[in-house]
Every structure is written in C-alpha cells, then in structure tokens.
Design brief:
With 395 residues, the protein is an alpha/beta fold. Helix content is 35%, strand content 25%.
Length: 395
C-alpha cells in the first residue's frame, strides 16, 4: 500500500530531516532576508532531483510530476522566516544569530515540506498528477510573503486546484493533527494613531489640550466599536497595545502615540470597522480640541478553510494516521498569511501536534523557549506527502 510505503520512507528519512531542522534552527533569518535559507532549500531540492526556481527574491518553488501530470495539481506550502526573539533554549542547535530565533516553528514547516518532497519524488511513479512545493518568505511581516508569491504567479503554470499548509501546535500532543472547516484564523490590521495638542504645565490643565486625557477617552471609546456595532456571533477584537507620551510628572505632553491591532473573522465587517474607527477617532479627538493622524495598515486576510476540502483532508488524515489522531482545532484570533492563498483557491490549513509533557516540551510559539518534540517531523512529512499524492479536489 502507498500509505505504508510513505510511512516507511518518512521513518527512514527522519534522522536526516532532524539534522536539517537543526541546521535551519541554528541559522534563522528574518522576514524577507531568508537568502541563505532559500539557497539551502534550493540545494536540497536539486540534490533530490526536483527542479525549482527562486520567486519573490527569497522564495523557492519546486515541481514534482507524477504519472499523468496534467490530471490534477496540488500545492503544498511552508514558510521560512524567523522572529526577532533572543533564544533561551540550552540546546546544541541553538540560534547562532543573536536576537533571531525560529520561535514559530517555520524551521519545522520547511523541514517537513523538504521531507514530503523527497518522499513524493521517490514515489512519483506511484501517484498521478503534479505537486507544487511552495517555500515562501515573510509570513511574519506585512505585506506577507504569500501575497508577493501570488503576485509573481505562484498559483499559475500549473494552477493548483487546492493548497495545503500546516502549523506546529504546541498545545496539541505529538501524534495528533487538528482540522477546522470555515473560519480558522482572523484578519490582522495594525493601528497607528498620533494625537497632538497644546502641551503645558500639569498644574494648569485649563491652558492646555490634554493629549493624555484625549488618548484615554479614545482608548475606551474604540472598544465600543466592537461591542456595539459588530454581530455578536462574529469574533472580532481591537486592542491598543502601546501608549507613548510624556516624560515627567508635571508636564502635559503635546503629543501621544498609540499603536494597536484590529482582528476580524468577517471581511465585510473588517472594512466597515475601519471606517467606524476612522470616524469615531477623528470626531472624538477633534471634539476635545486636539488633532489626530490615524493610519490603518491593512494586513493579512482571514484564513478560511474550504469546508469540502477540509472534509476530504480529515478523511485522508484518518486513513493515514487513524481516526483517533484527527481532532477539531479551535478558532484563533491570531493571523496567518495563508489567508491570501485561501482567497484565491480552496485551501486547508491544519495543525500538527508537537507537545510532549513528559519531555517538558510545552512552551508556546513566539516565546524564547519554544521547541518541539522532533518525532512530529516524521509524522508531518508523511502526512504532507500523503496529501500530495492523494488529493484530487474539484471544488
């Protein structure tokens, strides 16, 4: 059976894949600076015999053609960038780049896709169609590497009928996968607000325009946009995460800067909320005698998994790993630029369990102690290869 052969190869290649992961983990690169990572990925693909090309400067795209390559095309995606975090793990493969770390598991994603590529290439006479391998840059930073890859034509020539992406899940036990159809992850937009007024002595506020007070009123007021305007059944959140203004106890500053994030699970509500934020913020600040500059940096769209594709993926995952290892994942207000792909073609973004409580591997992503149970790499590579060899999705 093909599934057994894939599992055998995943097990056979696991030690080498772990070495690849250690190399990637030790040599992280920030978003849009993944030059050495891209070279490494390209070298590994070419050593396997997989033709590939550079796209969007630091992205890599490979093609594997099986029997009857025109029959169908499936895309498999991994992201390659790291985060500006100083690693605190005491491990032999700790990051050698101070202040840069693979704290979100993109080294794992890249390794898994390289493993799946090797398996699919070895077995290309045993499956039909074409698999497109997408190693993208810049998932962690606007405008999102997915958007750049799409602009350069990654979803054409050949055009995939479906795309799969995975993400490590440190809250899910190793050996488990989790899926969800429909809404999966939120859109993410950044808010930048500057409030300007007449500064002065704190003992004479009547002679000033108190920007601290204006900012305080605005922060509270913005919360009402969410609570009073959105559909209560549609998840959405607005958080002001930075307030910068003033430097001493007896001076009212002439300027206060706010930063924050706005997230939504409904694209129509998302952009209506933008208008409400602009209107409410401008009118409130002006009514208190201050001026305002407001910029909304539009970020990633929500991730929406095609329900039919999700059902197919769950069925195939259960056949490959066992039904007891296929779970339902939760909605998350975090964001992922995989949403750009799901706006273009049917997509399935699923979670790979990497937690091992007995080994003390429980730290969350984006923390300086994040790590994984590396036995998950074998599972992830086998599962991704199985999807690549099996999914024939017509929508």
């Amino acid at each position: 059976m093909l599934s057994n052969t894939i599992k055998q190869l995943a097990r056979q290649y696991a030690p080498d894949l772990i070495r690849i992961r250690h190399h990637l983990h030790a040599h992280p690169e920030l978003s849009y600076k993944e030059f050495e990572t891209a070279k490494f990925v390209r070298k590994k693909l070419e050593e396997t015999g997989i033709p590939c090309q550079i796209m969007a400067e630091t992205g890599v795209v490979g093609i594997i053609r099986g029997n009857d390559p025109e029959k169908r095309t499936v895309a498999l995606r991994a992201d390659m960038d790291a985060l500006p975090i100083r690693e605190e793990n005491d491990i032999p493969y700790r990051s050698v780049h101070e202040g840069v770390m693979h704290a979100c598991g993109h080294d794992v994603h890249t390794t898994i896709l390289l493993g799946a590529a090797r398996i699919l290439h070895d077995l290309k006479d045993q499956w039909e169609g074409t698999v497109k391998l997408i190693f993208q840059p810049g998932e962690e930073k606007n405008p999102g590497g997915a958007s750049l890859m799409i602009k350069e034509g990654v979803l054409t020539d050949p055009a995939p009928q479906a795309i799969f992406g995975l993400h490590v899940h440190p809250g899910l036990e190793t050996g488990k996968l989790s899926f969800r159809g429909g809404m999966v992850m939120a859109s993410a937009d950044e808010l930048y607000i500057t409030i300007r007024g007449k500064g002065g002595h704190a003992a004479a506020p009547h002679l000033t325009v108190d920007t601290i007070l204006v900012a305080s009123q605005l922060i509270v007021s913005l919360q009402q946009i969410i609570s009073r305007n959105r559909n209560p059944l549609s998840p959405s959140v607005l958080s002001i995460t930075s307030v910068q203004g003033g430097h001493t106890t007896n001076v009212i500053p002439s300027e206060v800067r706010l930063m924050g994030t706005f997230r939504a699970m409904d694209e129509q509500w998302r952009f209506r909320a933008h208008e409400l934020i602009r209107k409410q913020a401008t009118e409130l600040v002006h009514s208190m005698g201050a001026d305002i500059d407001l910029h909304i940096d539009v970020g990633y769209p929500m991730v929406y998994n095609n329900e039919s594709l999700d059902n197919v993926a769950r069925t195939e995952a259960a056949a490959f790993l066992g039904k007891e290892n296929v779970l339902e994942t939760e909605i998350r207000m975090g964001s992922e630029d995989f949403g750009y792909y799901t706006r273009q073609i049917p997509g399935c973004f699923y979670r790979l369990g990497v937690m091992n409580i007995d080994k003390g591997i429980t730290s969350g992503v984006h923390t300086p102690t994040f790590n994984i149970d590396e036995s998950a790499i074998e599972i992830g590579a086998g599962m991704m290869a199985w999807f690549g060899s099996r999914i024939d999705f017509k929508g």
